[in-house]
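Hi R.,

Here are the chain sequences for the assembly we discussed:
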Amino acid sequence: MADSEIAASILEACRNGDRDAFRALYEAYKDKVYSICLYFFHGDTAEASDVTQEVFLKLFAGIASFHGEAGFSTWLYRLVKNACLDASRRRVARARIADSPGMALPSPEDDLLNSQAAKAVQQAVSALPAKFRLPILLRYFSDFSYEEMSTTLNCSMGTVASRLNRGHKMLAKLLGGRDV
Amino acid sequence: MSDQHLSRLPVVKAPDEIWNSIEASLHTPPPERLRPWQWSRWAWLPATVVLLAVALWWFNGPHGTRWEVVRTTGSQSARTETVGPGELLQTDTHSSAEMQVGAIGKVEIEPGTRLRIIATKQNNNRLSLEHGEIAAAISAPPRLFFVETKSATAVDLGCEYRMKVDDAGNGLLRVTRGWVSFESQGRESLVPAGANCRTRAGAGPGTPFFEDAPSVLTTALDEFDFSGGSETALRTILTQARPRDTLTLWHLLARVPAPLRPMVYDRMISFAPPPAGVTRENALSLDPLTLKVWKDELAWTW
Amino acid sequence: MDMVIRSLATTLLALAIPLASAQSLSLTIGNTVAGQTPMVKMAQFIFRVNGCADLSKAKVAATAEGIVGNARRTIALDPLKLQQQPGVYAISDRWGTDGTWVVAITAGCLGATAGAIVQINARTFVRDGTQFFSRAPSPADIETALKAYASPVSVPR
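And here is the predicted structure of the full complex:
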C-alpha cells in the first residue's frame, strides 16, 4: 500500500492514541505483513502470527517517534525485517515446508496453496538463505523501489540489487533449473 | 522471470486472532507529548505554576483519566457523564449504566448498584463495588483491572464476568469467558469460564465450583467454606463430585486439614490418573510445582 | 491345538498393533484456562491433538456449522496454534450470536485421523454436547448434531 493511501490524519490519530486509528492501520497492512512473515518462516502460521503481532505492537509503541523522515511503509517494513531476523535468530534454525492450514476442509487459501505451482514457489522461497529470502519477499509484497528497499534493509542500493539478483537466480534454478 | 513465479504466492489473510492478541497486549496508547509550541504558551508563567500544570496533566493524562458513563433510565437513555478517581457511581432501582474502562473494556452497572472509582491508571484500573451487581468485559493483559469488595478482590486475568455483592460484602462471582483470580489476604481462587465463586465478609473468597455442579455439592461447599469446614461437608462434596469438579477438589486439596488431604487426593485420582511428575507424596505435601503441573492437566477437564 | 492357539494369538497381536496405532490419535476439548496464556482468553475453547508421534506433521481443520433462521451456514475457521503448547489450538468465535452452532474439527497425523463435533454456547462450549470420532466428522454427523442441539444460543445470566 502506498504511503499516499495512509492518510496523515490516521497517523496523527494513532500518535494521539486513537484505538480506531490503530485498527485502521492494522487492517491496511496486516495481510501483507503476515504474508511476508508466513513465507519467511516457511509457512509456519504460529511463528508468522507471533512475529506479526510483535511488529504491530512495536509499531504502536513507537509511532509517536515516527515523524515522516522516511515513508511510513519503509519504516513499517523495517520493523518487519528486524522482527523476522530477530525471531529466526532466537529459534533453532530449521527447514520446514509450509503446512497447509487446512486438511480435509479446504479454504480459498488452501486452494491456492495446494496448487502445485504455488507450492513449488513456496518451497523454493523457503530454501533461500534468509538474507536473500527477505529482500525477495519485501520486494514482492511491498513493491518498494531499490531506494526504499535500501532504507528498509539498511544497506546500500548496490547491496539490495545484488541480493535481489542472486535471490532471483537461485529461485529460477530451484524452479526450473535455468538461469535468468 | 522470478516475478512471474512470485506472483503465484498469494497474499494470505492474517488470522483474526492476531488482532485479539494485539488488543490484549496493548497497555495504553502512547502518551501525549507536549510539543514546543505548547510549552511556549506557558513561558510567561512562574515555574511553579508550570510545574503544577504538568503535575495536573500527569495526573489527569495517562496516569489518571476519567471514564465515560452512559446512563439508561427505563427505556430511555442516554445521559452521558464521566467519573474519575475517588468518585461514586450509583444507579437506582429503575436505572442502569454502562461505563467505559479507559481503552481496555467496559462495565455494565445493574439497577440498585453503588460503586466507587479507586484508580484509573495505566497499570491500575480499580473500582470498589459497595453493593449491587456489575458485568465486566475486559480485553487487556492480566492484572490491569481490579474489582474490590469488602471481602475479596477480583483480579481480571482477561475475561468477562458478573459480580454481585450485598452491603456486608457477601457476594458471588460468575465468570463467563476467560478466567479470574479472586483474592483476599493470600487466599486465591482461580475461577474459569462457566464457574462461580462465593465470597463472605470475614472469610474471603470461597472455593470455585462449576455452575452446573449438583446443588447438594454446592450447599456442602458453602458449609465447608464458611461454616467451619466440617468433615461431613467435605465427604458430601467428594461423593457428589463429577470429573469436571476437580476444579473444586484441586482448590480443596490445599484448604483441608492435612489429615483429610488423602481423601481429596484419592477422589481426584479416581477420575483420572495424575500426570507424569505428580506423586502422591508431593501432592499431599502441597509442593507448588506439583500442584501447578496437576492443575495444568486437570484444566483440560474443566 | 496349542500351535493353532499360539499362531492365532500371534496373528491377532500382529493385527492389534497397527489397529492400536491407527486408533491412538484423539482430540481433547478444553476450557480456555487450560491454554495457560492470555492469548486465548477470548477464544471460545481450545483443543489438543493427542497421540501424534510428530506434531510437526499434524494437520488440523475446523469449521463452524450452523443453522441461522432457516438457513444452513458453514464458516471456515483458522485454529490458532499455541506456541507454548505443541499440539494445542484455539478456536475463536466467528459465527456470531444468532442461531445454533457446532464446531467440527478434523485432525490428521501420520495416516491417522481423529475428529470432534463441539456444541458451543454463547461464550464457551458444552462439554456434554461434544462427540468424538476416530475419523473426520461426516456431513450426516454434523446434521444430526445440529438437529439435536437446535435451541437458541443464549448468554448465561
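Chain C has two helices and nine strands. Chain C has a mean pLDDT of 82.

Let me know if anything looks off.

Best,
T.
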